[in-house]
Specification:
By secondary structure, the protein is an alpha+beta fold. 36% of the residues lie in helices and 19% in strands. It has three helices and three strands, in the order αβββαα. It has helices spanning 8-28, 101-118, 137-152; strands at residues 61-70, 75-85, 88-96. A three-stranded antiparallel beta sheet has the order 1-2-3. A hairpin with a 2-residue loop joins strand 2 and strand 3. The longest helix is centred in the first third of the chain and has 21 residues, at 8-28. The model is unreliable at 29-55 (pLDDT under 50).
């Protein structure tokens, strides 16, 4: 005879093993990796630092980067050029190469409205989500801004 149901004891045992496995994995992570000390007791913990982008110390200049984003039909890309002075956006230029007609409309709306959103703002404060009705294009813009931050880091 072929059994089509799993006995309750097997199900409970499997659930118990699953929970125990999760607890073991949770115990593997933690703050122990973030700090360490040497034999003499001196604290040698380190903080993660990047190339200056987090500190807001940027070199003045004009920087260009590309960003991409997914639409329901295609993967689209835009090119972003920012002019930065004292860590503040002086000007912005966005160009696109839309692959779909609907994308052309939304990129156009984004390009028309982006200047009002970013000019005069601190580079570290840039994180657009929706500009002139275009929400997907902002993903590519934010990706390009992160690249520009890395380029401009002093």
């Amino acid at each position: 005879m072929i059994r089509t149901t799993v006995p309750t004891t097997v199900r409970k045992g499997s659930a118990l093993i699953g929970v125990a496995g999760l607890l073991v994995l949770a115990g593997c992570s933690g703050t122990a990796d973030a700090e360490s000390s040497t034999d003499d007791g001196a604290d040698t913990s380190t903080e993660s630092t990047d190339t200056g982008a987090a500190s807001g110390d940027y070199q003045d200049g004009t920087y260009t980067a590309d960003g991409s984003y997914q639409t329901p039909e295609t993967v689209e890309s835009i090119s972003v050029t920012l002019t930065i002075a004292d860590g503040v956006v002086e000007s912005v230029e966005v160009t696109g190469d839309p692959q779909a007609r609907e994308t052309e409309q939304y990129q156009g709306q984004f390009i028309d409205g982006i200047s009002d959103e970013v000019v005069g703002k601190n580079l570290d404060d840039l994180n657009v989500s929706r500009v002139a009705g275009s929400s997907l294009t902002s993903g590519g813009f934010n990706q390009a801004v992160e690249s520009i931050k890395e380029q401009a880091a002093a």
